[in-house]
Amino acid sequence: MTARPHRIVFANEKGGTGKSTTAVHVAVALAFGGARVAAFDLDHRQRTMCRYFENRAETMKRRGIELPTAQCHVVEDLDEAGMEALIAAESIGADFVIIDTPGRDDPLARHAATMSDTLVTPMNDSFVDFDLIGQVESENFKVRKLSFYAELIWEARLKRSRTSIEQNRAQMDWVVVRNRTGYTEARNMARIEQALTEMSKRVGFRVAKGLSERVVYRELFPSGLTLLDKGHLGDLGTSHLVARQELRGLIATLRLPGSEAREKAAAAR
Predict the structure, then answer these.
(1) CATH architecture of 4-255
(2) How high is the pLDDT of residue 148?
Protein backbone atom coordinates (compact mmCIF):
# COMPACT_ATOMS: atom_id res chain seq x y z
CA MET A 1 0.00 0.00 0.00
CA THR A 2 1.11 3.58 -0.61
CA ALA A 3 1.21 6.21 2.14
CA ARG A 4 -1.89 7.80 0.65
CA PRO A 5 -5.02 5.69 1.18
CA HIS A 6 -6.72 4.44 -1.97
CA ARG A 7 -9.90 6.50 -2.28
CA ILE A 8 -13.11 4.75 -3.39
CA VAL A 9 -16.04 7.07 -4.04
CA PHE A 10 -19.61 5.85 -4.51
CA ALA A 11 -21.41 8.50 -6.51
CA ASN A 12 -24.69 8.74 -8.37
CA GLU A 13 -26.93 11.79 -8.57
CA LYS A 14 -30.01 9.54 -8.50
CA GLY A 15 -31.31 7.95 -5.32
CA GLY A 16 -32.42 4.36 -4.80
CA THR A 17 -29.60 2.69 -6.72
CA GLY A 18 -28.17 0.70 -3.80
CA LYS A 19 -25.23 3.10 -3.46
CA SER A 20 -24.94 3.10 0.34
CA THR A 21 -25.59 -0.64 0.63
CA THR A 22 -22.87 -1.34 -1.92
CA ALA A 23 -20.48 1.06 -0.17
CA VAL A 24 -20.97 -0.62 3.22
CA HIS A 25 -20.49 -4.12 1.84
CA VAL A 26 -17.34 -3.13 -0.05
CA ALA A 27 -15.94 -1.45 3.08
CA VAL A 28 -16.63 -4.52 5.24
CA ALA A 29 -15.23 -6.85 2.57
CA LEU A 30 -11.99 -4.85 2.59
CA ALA A 31 -11.88 -4.96 6.40
CA PHE A 32 -12.43 -8.72 6.33
CA GLY A 33 -9.35 -8.96 4.13
CA GLY A 34 -7.27 -7.18 6.77
CA ALA A 35 -7.37 -3.66 5.32
CA ARG A 36 -7.84 -0.61 7.51
CA VAL A 37 -10.83 1.36 6.25
CA ALA A 38 -11.99 4.90 7.01
CA ALA A 39 -15.49 5.83 5.81
CA PHE A 40 -17.00 9.25 5.16
CA ASP A 41 -20.70 9.94 4.62
CA LEU A 42 -21.41 13.12 2.66
CA ASP A 43 -25.19 12.76 3.01
CA HIS A 44 -25.56 14.38 6.42
CA ARG A 45 -29.36 14.23 6.14
CA GLN A 46 -29.84 10.53 5.47
CA ARG A 47 -26.51 9.29 6.91
CA THR A 48 -27.33 5.77 5.65
CA MET A 49 -23.75 4.50 5.57
CA CYS A 50 -22.84 5.83 9.00
CA ARG A 51 -26.12 4.58 10.46
CA TYR A 52 -25.24 1.12 9.12
CA PHE A 53 -21.87 1.18 10.88
CA GLU A 54 -23.46 2.52 14.08
CA ASN A 55 -25.90 -0.42 14.01
CA ARG A 56 -22.94 -2.75 13.46
CA ALA A 57 -21.13 -1.32 16.51
CA GLU A 58 -24.26 -1.71 18.65
CA THR A 59 -24.65 -5.34 17.57
CA MET A 60 -21.03 -6.10 18.41
CA LYS A 61 -21.46 -4.54 21.86
CA ARG A 62 -24.77 -6.30 22.53
CA ARG A 63 -23.49 -9.73 21.44
CA GLY A 64 -19.99 -9.31 22.85
CA ILE A 65 -18.32 -10.02 19.50
CA GLU A 66 -15.68 -8.39 17.32
CA LEU A 67 -16.26 -7.97 13.60
CA PRO A 68 -14.20 -6.29 10.88
CA THR A 69 -15.61 -2.81 10.40
CA ALA A 70 -14.81 0.79 9.49
CA GLN A 71 -14.90 4.05 11.37
CA CYS A 72 -17.52 6.28 9.74
CA HIS A 73 -17.56 10.08 9.84
CA VAL A 74 -20.38 12.36 8.73
CA VAL A 75 -19.23 15.33 6.64
CA GLU A 76 -21.37 18.37 7.42
CA ASP A 77 -21.01 22.14 7.07
CA LEU A 78 -17.62 21.91 5.37
CA ASP A 79 -16.25 23.24 2.10
CA GLU A 80 -13.91 21.25 -0.15
CA ALA A 81 -10.80 22.25 1.79
CA GLY A 82 -12.47 21.43 5.09
CA MET A 83 -13.58 18.02 3.84
CA GLU A 84 -10.09 17.21 2.60
CA ALA A 85 -8.65 18.24 5.97
CA LEU A 86 -11.13 16.00 7.79
CA ILE A 87 -10.34 13.05 5.54
CA ALA A 88 -6.61 13.56 5.99
CA ALA A 89 -6.93 13.72 9.78
CA GLU A 90 -9.27 10.73 10.17
CA SER A 91 -7.64 8.39 7.65
CA ILE A 92 -4.11 8.35 9.07
CA GLY A 93 -2.86 4.77 8.83
CA ALA A 94 -5.81 3.68 6.66
CA ASP A 95 -5.38 1.60 3.52
CA PHE A 96 -8.68 2.70 2.00
CA VAL A 97 -10.99 5.68 2.23
CA ILE A 98 -14.63 4.98 1.35
CA ILE A 99 -16.82 7.99 0.52
CA ASP A 100 -20.59 7.71 0.12
CA THR A 101 -22.19 10.69 -1.60
CA PRO A 102 -25.83 11.92 -1.64
CA GLY A 103 -28.23 10.78 -4.34
CA ARG A 104 -28.53 14.32 -5.66
CA ASP A 105 -26.40 17.00 -7.27
CA ASP A 106 -24.06 18.30 -4.58
CA PRO A 107 -20.82 20.35 -4.79
CA LEU A 108 -18.92 18.16 -2.32
CA ALA A 109 -20.10 15.02 -4.13
CA ARG A 110 -18.75 16.40 -7.41
CA HIS A 111 -15.44 17.21 -5.75
CA ALA A 112 -15.24 13.76 -4.15
CA ALA A 113 -15.91 12.08 -7.49
CA THR A 114 -13.18 14.02 -9.26
CA MET A 115 -10.68 13.20 -6.47
CA SER A 116 -11.36 9.45 -6.44
CA ASP A 117 -8.92 6.69 -7.31
CA THR A 118 -11.79 4.30 -7.94
CA LEU A 119 -15.14 5.88 -8.80
CA VAL A 120 -18.10 3.51 -8.40
CA THR A 121 -21.40 4.57 -9.97
CA PRO A 122 -24.18 2.12 -9.10
CA MET A 123 -27.25 2.19 -11.32
CA ASN A 124 -30.43 0.18 -11.53
CA ASP A 125 -30.70 -1.63 -14.84
CA SER A 126 -33.05 0.85 -16.52
CA PHE A 127 -32.86 3.71 -18.97
CA VAL A 128 -34.16 6.00 -16.24
CA ASP A 129 -30.86 5.48 -14.43
CA PHE A 130 -28.82 5.32 -17.65
CA ASP A 131 -29.93 8.90 -18.27
CA LEU A 132 -27.48 9.95 -15.56
CA ILE A 133 -24.55 9.20 -17.86
CA GLY A 134 -26.09 9.54 -21.30
CA GLN A 135 -29.18 9.95 -23.45
CA VAL A 136 -30.34 7.46 -26.09
CA GLU A 137 -32.44 7.70 -29.23
CA SER A 138 -36.02 6.63 -28.62
CA GLU A 139 -36.23 4.42 -31.73
CA ASN A 140 -32.95 2.50 -31.84
CA PHE A 141 -31.57 3.14 -28.32
CA LYS A 142 -28.26 4.38 -29.72
CA VAL A 143 -26.38 6.78 -27.48
CA ARG A 144 -27.20 10.34 -28.53
CA LYS A 145 -25.15 12.46 -26.11
CA LEU A 146 -23.26 12.39 -22.85
CA SER A 147 -24.92 13.69 -19.72
CA PHE A 148 -23.54 16.55 -17.64
CA TYR A 149 -22.32 14.02 -15.05
CA ALA A 150 -20.43 11.94 -17.62
CA GLU A 151 -18.84 15.09 -19.04
CA LEU A 152 -17.82 16.13 -15.52
CA ILE A 153 -16.05 12.82 -14.89
CA TRP A 154 -14.50 12.88 -18.37
CA GLU A 155 -13.00 16.30 -17.69
CA ALA A 156 -11.80 15.16 -14.25
CA ARG A 157 -10.04 12.16 -15.77
CA LEU A 158 -8.35 14.36 -18.37
CA LYS A 159 -7.16 16.71 -15.63
CA ARG A 160 -6.01 13.76 -13.56
CA SER A 161 -4.00 12.35 -16.48
CA ARG A 162 -2.09 15.62 -16.77
CA THR A 163 -1.16 15.70 -13.07
CA SER A 164 -0.94 12.01 -12.15
CA ILE A 165 2.81 11.71 -12.77
CA GLU A 166 3.82 14.72 -10.70
CA GLN A 167 1.40 13.71 -7.91
CA ASN A 168 2.44 10.04 -8.06
CA ARG A 169 -1.18 8.94 -8.56
CA ALA A 170 -2.60 6.35 -10.91
CA GLN A 171 -5.35 7.16 -13.37
CA MET A 172 -8.91 7.24 -12.06
CA ASP A 173 -10.71 3.93 -12.58
CA TRP A 174 -14.42 4.54 -13.22
CA VAL A 175 -16.67 1.50 -12.70
CA VAL A 176 -20.40 1.57 -13.48
CA VAL A 177 -22.09 -1.11 -11.40
CA ARG A 178 -25.34 -2.64 -12.66
CA ASN A 179 -27.61 -3.41 -9.71
CA ARG A 180 -31.01 -5.15 -9.82
CA THR A 181 -30.30 -6.87 -13.14
CA GLY A 182 -32.67 -9.70 -12.21
CA TYR A 183 -35.61 -7.30 -12.37
CA THR A 184 -35.00 -6.21 -15.96
CA GLU A 185 -36.82 -7.74 -18.92
CA ALA A 186 -34.38 -9.61 -21.16
CA ARG A 187 -34.80 -7.45 -24.28
CA ASN A 188 -34.46 -4.24 -22.30
CA MET A 189 -31.41 -5.65 -20.51
CA ALA A 190 -29.76 -6.27 -23.87
CA ARG A 191 -30.51 -2.70 -24.97
CA ILE A 192 -29.01 -1.29 -21.77
CA GLU A 193 -25.95 -3.49 -22.16
CA GLN A 194 -25.48 -2.28 -25.74
CA ALA A 195 -25.82 1.37 -24.67
CA LEU A 196 -23.40 0.90 -21.76
CA THR A 197 -20.86 -0.76 -24.03
CA GLU A 198 -21.05 2.11 -26.49
CA MET A 199 -20.83 4.71 -23.73
CA SER A 200 -17.92 2.96 -22.00
CA LYS A 201 -15.88 3.24 -25.19
CA ARG A 202 -16.56 6.96 -25.35
CA VAL A 203 -15.72 7.92 -21.77
CA GLY A 204 -13.62 4.99 -20.58
CA PHE A 205 -15.52 3.41 -17.71
CA ARG A 206 -15.73 -0.30 -16.94
CA VAL A 207 -19.00 -2.14 -16.33
CA ALA A 208 -19.47 -4.53 -13.42
CA LYS A 209 -22.32 -6.71 -12.27
CA GLY A 210 -23.52 -5.54 -8.88
CA LEU A 211 -26.05 -6.65 -6.30
CA SER A 212 -29.44 -8.05 -7.18
CA GLU A 213 -32.49 -6.77 -5.33
CA ARG A 214 -32.72 -9.06 -2.32
CA VAL A 215 -34.70 -8.72 0.87
CA VAL A 216 -31.60 -9.74 2.84
CA TYR A 217 -29.94 -6.33 2.36
CA ARG A 218 -32.89 -4.50 3.90
CA GLU A 219 -33.16 -7.07 6.68
CA LEU A 220 -29.49 -6.71 7.67
CA PHE A 221 -29.51 -2.93 8.06
CA PRO A 222 -30.93 -2.78 11.66
CA SER A 223 -28.20 -5.13 12.90
CA GLY A 224 -25.43 -3.66 10.78
CA LEU A 225 -24.45 -7.16 9.73
CA THR A 226 -23.40 -8.03 6.18
CA LEU A 227 -23.46 -11.13 4.01
CA LEU A 228 -19.83 -11.74 4.95
CA ASP A 229 -20.54 -12.18 8.66
CA LYS A 230 -20.68 -15.95 8.60
CA GLY A 231 -21.60 -17.50 11.92
CA HIS A 232 -23.69 -14.52 12.99
CA LEU A 233 -26.50 -14.68 10.43
CA GLY A 234 -28.13 -18.00 11.30
CA ASP A 235 -28.96 -20.47 8.55
CA LEU A 236 -28.54 -18.87 5.14
CA GLY A 237 -30.85 -19.83 2.32
CA THR A 238 -29.70 -20.41 -1.23
CA SER A 239 -30.53 -16.85 -2.29
CA HIS A 240 -28.33 -15.46 0.48
CA LEU A 241 -25.43 -17.64 -0.60
CA VAL A 242 -25.87 -16.49 -4.20
CA ALA A 243 -25.92 -12.88 -3.00
CA ARG A 244 -22.64 -13.44 -1.15
CA GLN A 245 -21.07 -14.74 -4.35
CA GLU A 246 -22.34 -11.65 -6.18
CA LEU A 247 -20.59 -9.46 -3.62
CA ARG A 248 -17.33 -11.36 -3.94
CA GLY A 249 -17.58 -11.10 -7.70
CA LEU A 250 -18.05 -7.33 -7.45
CA ILE A 251 -15.04 -6.95 -5.14
CA ALA A 252 -12.88 -8.91 -7.61
CA THR A 253 -14.11 -6.79 -10.53
CA LEU A 254 -13.16 -3.55 -8.78
CA ARG A 255 -9.48 -4.65 -8.96
CA LEU A 256 -8.47 -2.76 -5.84
CA PRO A 257 -4.86 -2.70 -4.61
CA GLY A 258 -3.90 -5.85 -2.71
CA SER A 259 -7.06 -7.69 -3.78
CA GLU A 260 -5.44 -11.13 -4.11
CA ALA A 261 -3.94 -11.04 -0.61
CA ARG A 262 -7.24 -9.84 0.92
CA GLU A 263 -9.20 -12.55 -0.87
CA LYS A 264 -6.97 -15.20 0.67
CA ALA A 265 -7.27 -13.64 4.12
CA ALA A 266 -11.05 -13.42 3.89
CA ALA A 267 -11.35 -17.02 2.66
CA ALA A 268 -9.33 -18.21 5.65
CA ARG A 269 -11.87 -16.75 8.12
Answers:
(1) 3-Layer(aba) Sandwich (3.40)
(2) 85
